[in-house]
Design goal:
238 residues; 3-stranded antiparallel β-sheet; 5 helices; 15 strands; globular
């Protein structure tokens, strides 16, 4: 997504897309206004019902012909191997995964909701002055330390071929390990749910609040190039 301002001072955006094939690229010339009615942050007790957001996205999708057509062409070309990376660096909170794909018959693919038809991930911008994730190669070594909520136990199977210390169900023993300076982990992984709210005590990773995490001794991460992956799904509006 690319942002700009039109002649009247209104914030607008346009979309570009790349696939490694110049013939399958997207460069939308049409600018779009910020779709405030679609923001998932509207899903709150005093906000919109979920059905209204769903309908609003469906209606909005009907005006995104160039994007929908491009995704359908990618689906026809790559089939189930297609992985779509969405780089939305705005604060619009657009639920792109709910984009309604129509016109699939023209490309030999099914109509439906983007997130139900295509593997979709979000690109996260790294905000650090003068650096990108690709500036300097880094080396990390050591075992995998993992925590998995009961409903996310399957995540642990990814690490079956690695030295892996898994903690399941409760964060207590997992967090105790992070306090050990001699832990020697190359990757720390958490697979759990997260919750969001207007106050810090409502911000939770698993069952642990933000304040509790902030107060924890994590000596195991001091002075090491340990990778930390937080696979924490979250509710709308986070």
């Amino acid at each position: 997504m690319n942002r700009a301002y039109d002649d009247t001072g209104q914030e607008v955006f346009w979309l570009t897309g790349h696939s490694g094939d110049l013939e399958l690229s997207l460069d939308s010339e049409d600018t779009r206004l910020r779709p405030t009615g679609l923001a998932l942050s509207n899903l709150r007790p005093d906000g919109f019902p979920p059905t209204e957001i769903f309908r609003a996205v469906a209606e909005w999708s009907g005006h995104q012909g160039d994007v929908v057509r491009w995704i359908n062409e990618l689906r026809a070309r790559f089939g189930p191997d297609l992985h779509l990376v969405i780089w939305d660096d705005t604060d619009y909170d657009i639920p792109w995964e709910m984009l309604r794909l129509t016109g699939g018959r023209d490309h030999g693919v099914d109509d439906g909701i983007l997130g139900a038809l295509v593997t979709v991930v979000r690109w996260t911008t790294i905000r650090e002055a003068g650096r990108t994730p690709f500036n300097e190669p880094a080396v990390c070594s050591g075992h995998v330390l993992g925590y998995y909520a009961e409903e996310m136990r399957r995540d642990a199977t990814v690490f079956e071929n690695f030295e892996h210390r898994g903690h399941f169900g409760t964060t207590r023993t997992f967090l105790t390990e992070l306090a050990r300076p001699s832990l020697g982990a190359g990757l720390v992984y958490m697979g759990c749910h997260a919750t969001h709210g207007p106050n810090l005590y409502k911000l939770k990773l698993g069952t642990v609040t933000w304040n509790e995490l902030n107060d924890l001794d994590m000596s195991a991460l001091d002075g090491r190039r340990t990778l930390v992956c937080l696979n924490a799904c979250h509710p709308p509006g986070s």
